[in-house]
Specification:
The chain is built from eleven helices and ten strands. The protein is of the alpha+beta class and 308 residues long. The protein folds into two domains: 195 residues, Electron Transport, Fmn-binding Protein, Chain A (Pnp Oxidase, Chain A, Roll); 93 residues, Alpha-Beta Barrel (Split barrel-like). Strand 8 and strand 9 form a beta hairpin. Helix 10 packs across helix 11. The protein is globular, with a radius of gyration of 21 Å. The mean pLDDT is 92. This is DUF2470 domain-containing protein. InterPro entries: Haem_oxidase_HugZ-like_sf, Split_barrel_FMN-bd. It comes from Citrus clementina.
């Protein structure tokens, strides 16, 4: 396991990974009426796909965004990193926010032919996910199959966009500025050129499944606890996978903290970073290196206890 700055993603790469990992976000447009823009904001949750680094957004036909953008095409779009299943409950309980991307720019509706092409591209994206999962090894399948299908499947969450009974207006979001928001609420402006040139990790579209598949497995979460102990000398009592990328992963570990007011032992949830020896360019490589780390820490702990 490595531990230097070269193994940490840039802010632009983190933003691209978040956008590639999720499929829904909050779109904000300026409310308008017959007299023009009123400078108040209308917001709603919408679904999208990422194509060539830009979000393509599906807005229900009767949504107010479709009226607002006729008068004023300015808008903003906020997307959070996926926090499926037990991870969402943990973050809520400790009042920790998921990392987020906040984009501002112009929202351009696609004409019918381009909207049709966008729908075809969406089909290809969904088929690609099915293909990767279908062709995955036993190790990868073991992780992905442990995840909650309803909350982590891109196909399951986007299939209604292809339902001909539902009517949508498809927009291209032209980005003019990008902000990265960390887990503590701190904002970091990201250079637009860096955003445009950075690419998302190949494993990003399956990151929600990876995170939830690991967190739903008691054995894999015990391995995360051992990672904290063996690699970082941290005495964690529990651990959850927080985020994954090609260079490694982030873990939330439950470690000893200040005593409570009544003198009882206290604890706190602390974030730990683990990096791979080699970059994981796809989900197979990620799961393979994770499995190697699991085997390594078991050997080392067995050696400590004299069981090797």
């Amino acid at each position: 396991m490595k531990s230097n700055n070269a193994t940490v993603l840039t802010l632009a790469e983190k933003c691209k990974n978040i956008l590639a990992a999720n499929w829904q976000g909050r779109l904000n447009t300026i409310k308008a009426d017959a007299e023009g823009s009123k400078e108040s904001i209308y917001t709603s949750k919408v679904k999208y796909m990422l194509k060539k680094g830009k979000p393509f957004i599906w807005v229900p036909e009767k949504d107010m965004h479709n009226v607002n953008t006729i008068i004023d095409e300015r808008g903003s779009f906020a997307v959070a990193s996926p926090t499926p299943g037990p991870l969402a409950k943990l973050l809520h309980s400790i009042k920790k926010l998921p990392t987020r991307v906040a984009l501002s720019g112009d929202i351009a509706p696609l004409k019918s032919e381009k909207a049709r092409l966008a729908a075809e591209c969406l089909k290809e994206v969904m088929l690609s996910e099915q293909q990767v999962i279908g062709e995955s090894s036993y190790t990868v399948s073991g992780v992905l199959s442990s995840s909650n299908f309803i909350t982590t499947s891109r196909n399951e969450n986007l299939k209604d966009l292809l339902d001909e009974r539902e009517k949508y207006v498809v927009y291209k979001f032209n980005i003019s500025s990008c902000m990265y928001i960390d887990g503590h609420g701190g904002t970091h402006e990201v250079d637009l050129k860096d955003v445009q040139t950075s690419k998302a990790d190949m494993l990003a579209p399956l990151s929600a499944k990876l995170i939830d598949g690991i967190n739903q497995s008691e054995a894999r979460r015990k391995a995360l606890v051992l990672f904290c102990f063996v690699y970082l000398n941290a005495n964690a009592k529990d651990a959850f996978m927080l985020a994954v990328d090609r260079k490694g992963f982030d873990v939330l570990g439950k470690v000893p903290g200040p005593a409570t007011k009544d003198g009882m032992p206290g604890f706190l949830w602390k974030e730990f970073r683990f990096t791979f020896k080699e970059e994981a360019h796809d989900v197979e490589s990620f799961c393979s290196q994770l499995a190697q780390m699991e085997e390594e820490v078991v050997r080392k702990v067995s050696g400590f206890s004299g069981l090797a």
